[in-house]
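Budget justification note: compute hours in this period were largely spent on complex prediction jobs such as the one shown. Inputs:
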Amino acid sequence: MVEAAVAARGFDVSLTVGPGETVAVMGPNGAGKSTLLNVIAGLLQPDSGRSGLDGKTLFDLTEGRNQWTAPHRRGTALLAQEPLLFPHLSVLENVAFGPRSGGAARRAAAGSALHWLAEVEAADLRSRRPAELSGGQAQRVAVARALAAEPGLLLLDEPMAALDIHAAPLLRRLLRRVLAGRRAIIITHDALDALMLADRVIILEDGKISEEGPTRDVLQRPRSRFAAGLAGLNFVAGQITGHGLRAGALNLYGQHDDLPGPLPTGQPGVAVFPPSAVSIFLSEAHGSPRNSFAVTITDLEPHGDGIRVRAGEGGLLTADITTAAAADLGLAPGMQVYFVVKAGAVAIYPA
Amino acid sequence: MKHPLAAWAAAVLMVLTLAACAPAGQGGTNDDGAAGQRRTLTVFAAASLKGAFTELAGKFEAANPGTQITLSFAGSADLVTQISQGAPADVFASADARNMAKLADQGLVDGEPRDFATNTLAIAVPAGNPAGIKSFGDLARQGVKVVVCASQVPCGAATTTIEQETGAALKPVSEESSVTDVLGKVSSGEADAGLVYVTDARSAGATVEQVPFPEAAKAVNTYPLAAVKGAGNKPAADAFVAFVLGAEGQAVLAAAGFGAP
Amino acid sequence: MTPPTFKARRPATYTGIPGWIYAVAAAGALLVVLPLVGMVARVNWARFIPLVTSESSLAALGLSLRTSAASTVLCIVLGVPLALVLARGSFRGQRVLRSLVLLPLVLPPVVGGIALLYTFGRQGLLGRTLEVAGIQIAFSTTAVVLAQTFVALPFLVVSLEGALRTAGPKYEAVAATLGASPSTVLRRVTLPLVLPGLASGAVLSFARSLGEFGATLTFAGSLQGVTRTLPLEIYLQRETDAEAAVALSLVLVAVAVAVVALAYRGSGMVGREITTTTAPARGGDVR
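Corresponding output:
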């Protein structure tokens, strides 16, 4: 359980992580994700708030109280983007560092370190120095080191971000195994990490939680532009109308079959649709059930085998079309075109 | 301006000498010569002569218009080293015969060195004389912190002589390499007493008091001076040596506490 | 102008150093090296051994080595906490404290000696209290060590603070989250990480202590076996026996060169090892 505010960073977050639950924290750069972890780990003191873990107060800075537990007494091991293995210690000594600090005897600590090294499939690296490891190996050892400290809460700050594309999948599989049934908070930019590793996802924007829920739900029915971006969906926020959603001059028809009952007309709602469902025409196309709206192309960029066309204000609407189609249409930034989406491809639901 | 004619003569003589000595290519610098031109005389003197020689130089300059004296004070041994390494000295005034002999051995002394002053040791004590030092014998008392010069430097050699003559054995807490350092320890009150020259104690001002002692007569230090060989300004150098030995020079030295040679 | 000798050994990779820089650099190197050569040329080798093994020389050398070792230990004991506080702490007056600690670097040693005299001397700030307690510092070997520590401490603080800043607080933060108390972090992480910086700082301090002259002369005095260190002995020998002074100077230079060489070799070795684990992997580790 954490409630914390850091005025200087405009940070104000409240969150609870259940036992055995892994929560993914996602959000744009500068949203305060690392601040959250640092506050929990005790590396940053918030202005106010409180937090507890397994009946222990991590900090209580609410009115009239001033309780603060030092980082080393919290049981919140932090695994950062960089492995940060102690360069002067061997791999085994690195992993044994936590148990040793916890008061374990040398032999017991080494035994525990060997167990966790085996757990991350790195037992054969035990006598190496960190400088002799690849990035992926080092990060696996760092995982073992964090786990060997037997933290009540494991904090992972983009553990895959500094790895190359070959090493990341291996570590992801490994984390999936060791995080199962373990209380952890993981910061990630990757929807795949959230899906594979987390039970629940929290979207943090501008120091505040903008959205949270089970990972599948958030990615399927994003209620924030950031979550929609993660899920690779176009996102339009507006007001629910009798037949769909209105956002300014834009009227969208869509479906809400999977929601029980009628939509609450007049309430704020969102519409999402995949870029691949968007076709581009040079003139307005009619006929139901279709949405057609005029936009100005802002950018063209390669995307998979085809082309992603960004249009509208800030390039927020996207369409994925084939390269051939883009060539036929002679698309270029600045052109006015029509984005056409079948109503069946647009999902509308309350915000 | 007591002797305008003599000054004139000296000046003319100097110009002629220099013109003769100067390499051909540099002759042009003397074209505007005569009385208005300033001639420099460089005097290297032992540090203990600082007060007296500064005053002497002023008087000499007044008596010899057109001559400017540059003074350089340091330990005698330092000065000998500097001169033998080519420092441009015209006159060397040493605090002891030994250093003068060193310079003479290198063939750098022009003529015979002349003794011009003597100096004796005195006991220097901090203002108020906290340890109550009254005699040389008091210095050997238990618990009295005495600072002396190391035997390698003139004032230390004098100290050793007195010790040998009197049979008293001092147990100094420090053997400094210069009089200044001895005085520093005394004036700051770190030491109860120090053995320095009468003239040094006198120039140290109000922070140091002087206790004269008869045994000092056992080690009288003689100061010689001489023109340096190859002096750029030999006549002026000789004139300065004569001035120091003359009545006016001796009066200044006596006032500073030096004894007659 | 480009000296042909440098042109002949063109480095394998582009260095971007203009040719004339080498000429100026050579002049700079000569300015340091030539006087040493000049001194060595003056050594009377026939008398060298007797001169440097005379009783007073050995006493001075022994005293210098002992006091420099003691002041280096003192520098480490006092300087490590100072560097830690300056590099990691944040408090009011931190910048002022740093400037003050570094002051002996730019202060003439004589000034340091005078300052020490009026602090630890008989009439000084603490001296009176110490004297009442039966401790007399003036004219003792302790005074020498104090003077040396005074001038050498900044060297240790500067190198160590630099090393601490370069290492950054990341490793300490990770160690803390692994359950290590601040003292454990200091002992098992911080100090081992900055060991090269600490070692070179200690060596510099030792070398500076060895060369200390002005403050010792002003504050401690000069007595064989008690306060007359090698530089003071050289200064004194010069009064009577220039050859002895030159011979002893050569000994001092040799000791200093050995110490500095040791430091660079040592820090070079540890320095390589510390090239951190943060470099991204190249080949990955697919198996």
